Amino acid sequence: MANFYTDIPEIKFELENSSLMPRIVELKERGFADKDTYAEAPQDYADAIDNYEHMLEIVGDITANTVAVNAEAVDAEGPHCENGRVRYAEKTYENLAAMNKAGLNGMTMPRRYNGLNLPVVAYTAANEIVSTGDASFENIWSLQDCIETLYCFGNEEQRQKYVPRVCAGETMSMDLTEPDAGSDLQSVMLKATYDEENKCWRLNGSKRFITNGDSDIHLVLARSEAGTRDGRGLSMFIYDKRDGGVNVRRIENKLGIHGSPTCELVYKNAKCELCGDTKLGLIKYVMSLMNGARLGIAAQSVGLSQAAYNEAIAYARDRKQFGKAIIEFPAVQELIANIKARLDAGRALLYQTARYVDIYKALEDISRERKLTPEERQELKAFNRLADSFTPLAKGMNSEYANQNGYDCIQVHGGSGFMVEYACQRIYRDARITSIYEGTTQLQVVAAIRYVTNGQYANVIADMEKETVRPEYEPIMARLKEMAVKFNECTAKVKEAADNDFHDLCARHLYDMVSNIIMSHLLLQNASKAPELFGKSLQVYVNLAEAEIEKHYRWISNLTPAQLENYKQA
Known about the structure:
By secondary structure, the chain is α+β, with helices and mostly antiparallel strands. It folds into three domains: 9-166 and 283-435, Butyryl-CoA Dehydrogenase, subunit A, domain 3 (Up-down Bundle); 172-279, Butyryl-CoA Dehydrogenase, subunit A, domain 2, CATH 2.40.110; 441-567, Four Helix Bundle (Hemerythrin (Met), subunit A), CATH 1.20.120. The chain contains 17 helices and eleven strands. Helix 3 (45-77) runs antiparallel to helix 4 (90-101), helix 5 crosses helix 9 and helix 16 (500-529) packs antiparallel against helix 17. The longest helix is centred in the C-terminal third of the chain and has 40 residues, at 374-413. The protein starts with 8 loop residues before the first helix and ends in a 12-residue tail after the last helix.
């Protein structure tokens, strides 16, 4: 029977083969302090890894044999809006029931709230696996991660009230965007006022493009400070569907992710609770929420790339033309090899990012219980910086790769790929949103570019260049060092120009350059440990990356500030 975890050994590799994993497990398990209190708590490192793998095997089984089987029916039916409420596609309820029966909720939450206490790395793997089966269902199921923000910034009473409900299977949403506030969340105008008589907050207004907008528990960004127009007047609130006051006006008719309801919501004096402190909704809480969401979309994108690869290679092996399977034709071989190389490189970046997030978030959680040592504070600072710099690369590049891999998967199918009978068209449609929601690729560039100009990425690459590799891969290391020279030269030129427009125009090119170099290094490290898994992808990806570096190097080298007018069409 198929299993989307055990059938993909690259995921198991990422879970086990990092020098950071012992530290992650030690921090997440608090030195295995739970082993005497909870029967399911691991006794040691090996037991913890075995526990994570057992959970992922369950996720892989349910995804392969329920979620993936239902994907086409969910895509065809989609959710419905009935009397201000959402009714999912019938097979979505079947998916949710399977996940709930297996207890696959509250995955990262502590055991004291009935959570599974899994690290972000394991939860990221689960997200990837579910997305391989159906990205639209992953949108519903993975929003359980919103509880992380409530756990981090809510009070203990709120944790006791809401976290166990999510662990039991209740759904969540993050209600951020509005008709006039998409990427520019400072413009949010949903009104929050304090009801003195009833000692609670009330919400009035509307939200748009809210994924899973009829969820049980909402995190809502709203304007609590009258007369303000910027981010300093925004706060975060918790809305409980049981209290009423929010209706679904409509469900958007989308290109893809049909199974996931994207809603327009109307708030009418809806009762809610303040999460954390006022005025920090956008500048602190939403930024934390969005970073988690962006890692989730990176995992969704890798899952979609895996699905594209699965469909492409299966079809190419089966489809015969001119007397032989089309997988024997070099043109098709190149398409499939490129899909696999981008998949493996993007996955390496995804899990390295997740590992960085794991360490800093675990230390941050410990800091709520006790004072960190000076060494721990330095560790938290270093890994927070790494997580913050890697997240926009992981989200942006994997979403772009998901789109390209979906496109190439259809190309492998030829005319059949244009027919709705084949899953590749759904994968292609579902992939399109990944480079848009939770911050477009252009916004990921904005988030990342400061780490280009302040030297953070250059330092990361320099450290990677010190890694030991297999002797046969030393020529590849030399090629990567040449790529870094060109990246550093381009960075220096942009900084020396001291022109904001020139800087902004070059930003995407620098972003692509550094992403390709870092992914090449991560794939090189993986191939040095497991050449049988990653050797082919390494050779293919470095060829692709080298071509990309040269393209961007020539583009920046030939650009002058005087040419900026050529890019202004308005």
